[in-house]
Design brief:
- By secondary structure, the chain is α+β, with helices and mostly antiparallel strands.
- It has one domain.
- Helices cover about 30% and strands about 25% of the residues.
- The protein has a 4-stranded antiparallel sheet.
Length: about 150
Amino acid sequence: MIILFSLICTAQENNLNDYKASVEFVNSDTEGTVTVSAVGIGKKKFESTKDAARNAFFTLLFRGIPGSKYKSPLISNEAEFKNHPVILEILNNGYVSFLSNSSVKSEIKKNKKEDGVKGIETVNYFTINYDALRKYLEQKKVIRKFGI
């Protein structure tokens, strides 16, 4: 099992080396969107859900979603862009504008002695508007338009 660390304080939110996520492809029913399942951990349910969303977006941006047509990352040079202001904005709450749906699939209370981490772990479904995210990154000159 992957142990996830909640990124609660602002200093930790800007350290993208802490992203260790379990993000899996669910479906891609609507053209230009992808639905993923993502795990998050936090002291409270809303923190856990935020952590899961950040994990989903980080994975889509820098790793790609295996098993989907979005298996290639949007940004191939993680070292250059992981602390870029546009990326930090997206991961710190800007991701909300690219979500077309989100729901909590399950919720488990974690115990430090038994699980190695204390808090609430949630598994969430997120439907991400991939096309809008890609267009936004192109407009902000983080990535180039396809074919250029």
